[in-house]
Every structure is written in structure tokens, then in C-alpha cells.
Amino acid sequence: xxxxxxxxxxxxxxxxxxxxxxxxxxxxxxxxxxxxxxxxxxxxxxxxxxxxxxxxxxxxxxxxxxxxxxxxxxxxxxxxxxxxxxxxxxxxxxxxxxxxxxxxxxxxxxxxxxxxxxxxxxxxxxxxxxxxxxxxxxxxxxxxxxxxxxxxxxxxxxxxxxxxxxxxxxxxxxxxxxxxxxxxxxxxxxxxxxxxxxxxxxxxxxxxxxxxxxxxxxxxxxxxxxxxxx
Length: 230
Known about the structure:
Elements: H1 3-23, H2 36-43, H3 47-59, E1 63-66, E2 70-73, H4 78-81, H5 83-91, H6 97-116, H7 121-131, H8 140-157, H9 161-169, H10 171-184, H11 188-204, H12 208-229
Antiparallel strand pairs: 1-2
Helix pairs in contact: 1-3, 2-3, 5-9, 6-8, 6-10, 6-11, 6-12, 7-8, 7-11, 8-9, 8-10, 11-12
GO molecular function: DNA binding; DNA-binding transcription factor activity
Protein name: GntR family transcriptional regulator
Domain HTH gntR-type: 8-76
């Protein structure tokens, strides 16, 4: 085993041990880690391995290093932890965007069905405004922003923060696809609003299966266009 590989293995071991302290409940959200020297000795790790593990866990928002104060466990909420997903999505090339649409097609119909039984009158009213808030000559940026707000609003209506964070995380790649569609396909605004209205009608009626079906058709329509445009 090379020196670099051995060092990585020790860092991985340190990451696992810190993770176990969190999953066991010994460390909770907002707690401060023991001092580096004490923690290294207790876990049977070198201070270098521990330091590298802390760096890695800071990058994925599990730990927060506050200089002059110490290292803390973050809030561990889903939005915070899934920031790393957004970063990963943004690094993907445009030719992998279809994979993200496949994920959306798996997730969003179920999200729409869930929203049908949970949406509030206030959220419903907000989403209705979005379906009447675009003119036929709206710019591509306006269409994209409206679409993102609509889908985010339906996710919020479920009351499930993990769902919201997951869909936020995969929006980076799909946002570019929406821009391509708006630029190259005539009638994108009218069709998008019509599909959004049909989804919302089903949600308002409390018809989970119709909401699921309309959302499936909506996502599949964009995905099919992308496949033909490649």
C-alpha cells in the first residue's frame, strides 16, 4: 500500500469514527467536538488523520470549523446536507442531463400525489398566481424562474423538507434543459402553463392519481424533447 493510499485509509477510518459518534447520539446537532488532541487519543487516531477527516466532513456540511472557537456538528438538516448534491449536479456535463430527468420522473409524480392530500389554501392560491403570471412573450429566464417556483411550491406543499431539498439539488442540470427548450421550441410558455394548470387542477381536486399522471406527462414531455434534440 502506497503512503498516499494508506493516509486516505486512515482518514476514512477517522470519518467513520466521527460519524459513529453522531449516529450513536453522543454528538448531536450544534454540539462541539472535543479538543483535537483529546479526540485523536480517544479514537486511537493520529492528529493528521483526524484533521483530514474534519476537513472532509466540513465540505459536506456535517461539521463546521469556527476558527478560534472549535469544531461543531452542524444542524444536520436535509437542506444543509444536500447542498453537496447541488454542487455535484452543477459539475455534471450537459450530456448527462437526461439522467437527472429520469430521477425527476421517478420523484415528482409521487410528490404531486402527496401534495394533493396536503396542500393548503394559501399555497394553492400562490401556485394559481404562477399559472397566470406569464405572458406568451415571456423571456426564457422568466419561464425558467416560473417553472422552478411552481415545482418547488408543489414540493413545499407536501410538508416534507427532504423532498424539497432533493428536488432543489437536482434542479441545476434541469434548469439548463428548460432554457434550451424555451429557446428552440415554439409555444413553450403556453404548453408549460397548460400542463401546470392541469397538475394544479388535479391537486386542488384532491385527486392524487390524476396529479401523478399529469406530472408524469409533464416531465416526460420535456425529457422526450431532449432525447430528440440530442
